[in-house]
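Study this:
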Amino acid sequence: MSVDRKHPDFKKWLPTADKMELVLEGEDAVYESTDVIKQLSGQNVFQYRDYKRRAVWYPFTHRTRHSLHGALFRREPMCAMPEALSYLYEEATPYGTGIKQLASETAYELFGAGRYGILVDIPEGSTRPQFLPYHGKNIINWQTTNINGKVDLSMVVLREYVCLPDPDDIFNQIEVEQYRVCRMEQMDSAWVYIQEVYRDDELVSQTVPMSSGQPFGYIPFVFFNQSDNGPCPQKSILYDLALMNIHHYRWSAEEGHGLHFVALPTPWIAGGQVQTEASGVLQSFPDPTNTSIAGGQVQTEASGVLQSFPDPTNTSIPRDQNGRPVRTDSAKPTFFIGSDKAWSLPKDASVGILETTGSGIGLIQGKLTKLVEYMQSIGARLLSDHQGNETATAIKIQKTSESNALSHIANVLDAGFTNLIAYAADFMGLSDPSIATSSIEEDVYFKVNREFISLKLSADEATKFWALFQQDAVEADVLVETFEKGELYPANFDKNAEVERLVEMKANPTPPVNLNNNQDPEDPSLMA
C-alpha cells in the first residue's frame, strides 16, 4: 500500500496536461523539448540545434486562452454570502486572494491543464475557514462510495510541497513532498470526515475537523473540470488547438530547413588550378560534371597534402556512426566571399552559383497556411476585420462556438464556488456540517458573467428602445433587462426599483439612464 498511488483516470489524463503546459509555456520550453521536433537521421548535435532554431513558434494556444478567459471575466462575478463570511471577498485563501480573483485563477487553469480542485479547511494558525487550491496534477487519487443513499466522494489524495527548516542551516529551507488524504470513515454507524498527512508513506498527523463540536459528514472538496464538478478529469477544451500548434511548429521547422538549403546560393569553381595563400601550393577544382571525380584527390593549402573524395560506393572506406566517410587528411580548403575579397583564376577556369527554385517549399508553405486556418476554426483568435473591429460573422461565430464552451465552464464555476461558500458556512457553525446540502445554500450564490461579447447600447439605440417603451410596445421589465444587457447599469442594481422608476418617468423624451456608465457603482440612481 502506497499513498502516492495514482488513479487510472489520472494516468490517462496526465499526458494531456503535460502537453498543454508545454505548449502554454511558450517557445523556450518547446525548443528545449526533444519530443516536439525530433532529430533527423544523420544530424549531429549542432545540425539538430540549428534545425530547431529555424522553426518559428506562434503562440496560438496561449493567445486563445487569454481571449476566452477575458471573455468569461469581462464582467465581475456576482456573489452573496452571510456577513460572517464577508472576509472571503478579500481573503479567501491563506495568501490573501479574494474569492472573485480565485475564481478567475481557477478558470485560467481550466483553460490550461483542464482540471483544478479546492479544499475548504481551517489552516494552521487561523481561526476561520479558507479555500486551499490544488492544481489538477496534484489531485492524484480519489474514490466514491454510497454514503447515506447517495454516491459521494469518500476519499481524495492531494499532493503538497511544504518547506521545513533545515536543522543544519537556519538560513535554508528544505522542500518536502507530502500527501494530504481526505477520507470518510464509518464511526458508530455514521460517516465521519477524517484528514491525514503522510510523508514517505508514514502517517505524521490525523485530525477530525469539527464545527460546533460536530464532525463533518462529507469531504469539503470541490472538483473543477471542463463540463462538471465530478472527480474524473477531462482534457482542456484547448487541447486540440495545442496539438495543431505543435503540428504547425514541426512544419515550420521543415520550411526553415528547406529554405536554408534552397535560398542560400552556393558558389562552384570548375577546371584549372588556382594558387592559394600557401606559397607554391596549387588547389585543383575538378569539373563538377565529371562523374569520375569520385575517388579522386585534390591538392589543398597544406603543401604536399592531398584532399581525398572517397567513392561513396566503396564499402571499404571507414565511416562514422552516421554513415559519413572518416577523413584522415587535412581540412577542406576555404574561399571567402565578399566585396573585399578577390579570387585569382586561370583563364580555363569557370565559376558559378548553384541555385534552385525549391518548388517543394511552396507545398510546405501551403501546409502551414492550412494549419493556420484549422487553428482559427478551432478558436486560435477572435475573428476581426483588418481594422481590428469585430465583424458580424465574428460575433456570430463567437456566439455559437465560444459561448457553448464558456457556458459549460461558467456553470462549473457557479456550482463549485456556491458549494465552497456553503462549506465555509458549515465550518463557521452557520449550518449543519453533517450533511453536504443544507439550508444555507438558499442564501448564498456565485454567478459568473454570461455576456461574453460586449453588447453595449449606444445613445441612439437606447433612445429607440425608450421610444418603443413610450409607445407601449415594450414592457418596463423588458426595457430594464435590455438596458442591463446593453451594459447601461452597474452590477447588483435593484431591478424592481428601476422598473418603478422608469414607469414614473415614462413621459421623459429621452431615456433616464447614464449612457456613459460613469455613475457611482454604489448609487442605485441612474438619472442622467
